[in-house]
Amino acid sequence: MANMQGMSGLRVLDLSDQVSGAYCGRLLATAGAQVTLVEPTAGSRLRSRPPLLTAIDPMRSAAFEYLSAWKRGVALDWDSGPGFDAFGHLLDQADVVITSMADSQALAFDGRVRSERPGLVHVSATAYGLSGPWAGWRSSDLTDWASGGYLYITGDPLREPLQGAGPWTSYVAGITAAVGTMAALHARRTSGRGQLVDVGTMESMASSHQWSLVMWSHQGRIKHRANNRHAEAHHPVSLMQVSDGWVCIGAPTAAQWTSLCIALELPEMADDPRYATSGLRFDAAEEIDGRFAPFLMSRTRTEVVELLQEFHVPASAVLSMDEVQEDEQLEARAFWAYPEHLASGAKMPGLPFVLPSSPDDFRAAPSLGADTRAVLSEAGIDDAEIESLLDAGVIALHGTAHG
């Protein structure tokens, strides 16, 4: 096992073929860990996950390129005897292994690999976890949004529930898995033992609720859809229209409410007893918005946001995706990565935080088997055995396999 100094000494094997586990691996890689993607010789299922960059390669996935950036790549069918022996060499050097196997398979794998490697941390990222009556159930982006309670509270109150965009739930689970990984590694420093980190997307989403749960447990109220309003007895915490688009304003506290009224040149509203508490303001949301509208509609997003920030009121323009990609704040933070191998001027989200241990340079997602030989050699497997594994079809080297 590596003696981890910061994140740079951490060795991770990423076996996941689902977004949550793959994103956990990406977060660890961008924090400075050495993350090796271990996929079958036919390629990970993530390589064919839409959207596909069909102008370049019919089987090149934008999701895979993003999730696998900063990782090394090994193509190895470890379910065979010789394959598992080779995989065992990789496990012997690893601190963490990430999987997305079904419950019974994951538990059997855990018992097999950690019985001889007590310091190994196994991170299992699945939809419903490895126990309980739903363990092993299939899921999708939509069912994940539903099971965690977010589908019910998203959308217009007079319409059907709405799913949030994309695999957002899987990214929340990936973040949860990364936190669980670090907690297990911290515990290992004292005990010397690894553990199974069992992460379910349903639990990750349920734990992300705030006052929605307290509303039910302490008030007996079920939170309902409220369109673009907060719907937890706070206002304004919502979107408001201005002359050139929309801004998001969050002023739930009494101090923020007072500052907002003064900024919008309506100081009398701050002392109006009809708006004295957050609950009263929530009940009077339509009236409040109507009184704010003339001021807001006569100004641009930039003018409103800069004004409210001066008054210490949380506010942001609602940016379109092209505006996000050109925003000066993200540019100043050197947030973007530039995968020029995909296309000239291509852009993707880069490092999500600033850490001294983070890698200096962008590393593109590996081609299938790109680092197989190097990684196996580092694990102590000699060239003759590597060639034998290649001849047997147990491994693939870059350029020797399809996918």
List the helices and strands and how they pair.
Layout lengths: L10 E4 L4 H12 L3 E6 L22 H6 L4 E5 L4 H13 L2 E4 L3 H12 L6 E6 L14 H7 L20 H24 L4 E5 H6 L4 H9 L17 E6 L2 E6 L3 H10 L3 H4 L7 H6 L1 H13 L3 H10 L4 E3 L3 H6 L1 H5 L3 E2 L10 E2 L22 H7 L4 H9 L3 E2 L7
Parallel strand pairs: 1-2, 1-4, 2-3, 4-5, 5-6
Antiparallel strand pairs: 3-12, 7-8, 8-9, 10-11
Helix pairs in contact: 1-6
Account of the 3D structure:
- α1 crosses α6 (168-191).
- This protein is 39% helix and 13% strand.
- The protein has helices spanning 19-30, 62-67, 81-93, 103-114, 141-147, 168-191, 201-206, 211-219, 254-263, 267-270, 278-283, 285-297, 301-310, 321-326, 328-332, 372-378, 383-391; strands spanning 11-14, 34-39, 72-76, 96-99, 121-126, 196-200, 237-242, 245-250, 315-317, 336-337, 348-349, 395-396.
- It folds into two domains: 11-207 and 339-396, 3-Layer(aba) Sandwich (Rossmann fold); 237-318, formyl-coa transferase, domain 3, CATH 3.30.1540.
- It is built from 17 helices and twelve strands.
- It is α/β, with parallel strands linked by helices.
- The chain is elongated.
- The strands form three sheets. Strands 6-5-4-1-2-3-12 form a seven-stranded mixed beta sheet, sandwiched between helices. The protein has a three-stranded antiparallel beta sheet with strand order 7-8-9.
Tag the structure with descriptive keywords.
12 strands; Rossmann fold; 2 domains; 403 residues; alpha/beta
